């Protein structure tokens, strides 16, 4: 791995570590030793293996591929909501179509604010896995802890912080067991920690159906998020044009091709721009 790229990763790690109270807590969040974090930040790279560089780069969100991000309308909406939730310990759910940029907006917010902890949820998580992931994100070493001890440690740590925020991205993937556990977190941290759930509109449909069927906990969850989900507007043609121009696609016919092809999905926008730029470079 070339020195320039290593320095870029080290810079990204430095910025990442600044979000935590100490480098030790940042190391726990990444899943490496505190000495590794210190060595990389301080330029002592002789003993750092390529695998470790890749692990750290992935953990801190470093990507060498050049891509110019653009603040879409939904990005701006989400940033305002996340800021409000963090500053005022609000609990809310945001819904938007797949590819609308929810995860990107959350990552950007977490990258630029201290005491913001983002989890990308998975279907296979159980309560213990969820708590281990949350402990790691906060910088708590959960090795050997029971479920109760993890809950106590998480709540205790967050209550000592100024305006912490938990972001549960892709919350529609959480099992019922973990959605019930959301109630426990809310009750323990009410008015002291913001919690944001992001998901597709399936989450709202699931909650409303659960309420209709009188499923355990669903009405309580719905109440705690304010009895509504905040819908995003979706990717507009104007958003796509800005992204194209920022990433080297400026010809009208090429921009039109991206707009027509993307189906309001930012992942498709990126792929189409890549294909057009590759084609133009080959000419």
Secondary structure: elements and pairs:
Layout: H1 3-17, H2 23-30, H3 34-41, H4 50-60, H5 73-88, E1 91-95, H6 102-111, E2 116-120, H7 127-138, H8 147-159, E3 165-169, H9 176-189, E4 194-199, H10 202-212, H11 218-224, E5 230-231, H12 237-246, H13 252-262, H14 266-282
Parallel strand pairs: 1-4, 1-5, 2-3, 3-4
Helix pairs in contact: 1-4, 2-3, 2-7, 5-6, 7-8, 9-11, 10-11, 12-13, 13-14
User: Beta-sheet strand percentage?
Assistant: 5-15%
The N- and C-terminal alpha carbons lie at a distance of: 31 Å
Largest sheet: 5 strands, parallel
**Overall body shape:** flat
Number of strand elements: 5
- Annotation field: number of helices: 14
The low-pLDDT segments are: none
Strand order of the largest sheet: 2-3-4-1-5
Rg calculated over all Cα atoms: 21 Å
Helix content: 55-70%
Roughly what is the average pLDDT, rounded to an integer?
91
Given helix and strand content, the structural type is alpha/beta
Order of helices and strands: HHHHHEHEHHEHEHHEHHH
Structure description:
By secondary structure, the chain is α/β, with parallel strands linked by helices. The chain is 58% helix and 8% strand. It is built from 14 helices and five strands. The chain has helices at 3-17, 23-30, 34-41, 50-60, 73-88, 102-111, 127-138, 147-159, 176-189, 202-212, 218-224, 237-246, 252-262, 266-282; strands spanning 91-95, 116-120, 165-169, 194-199, 230-231. Strands 2-3-4-1-5 form a five-stranded parallel sheet, with helices on both faces. The mean pLDDT is 91.
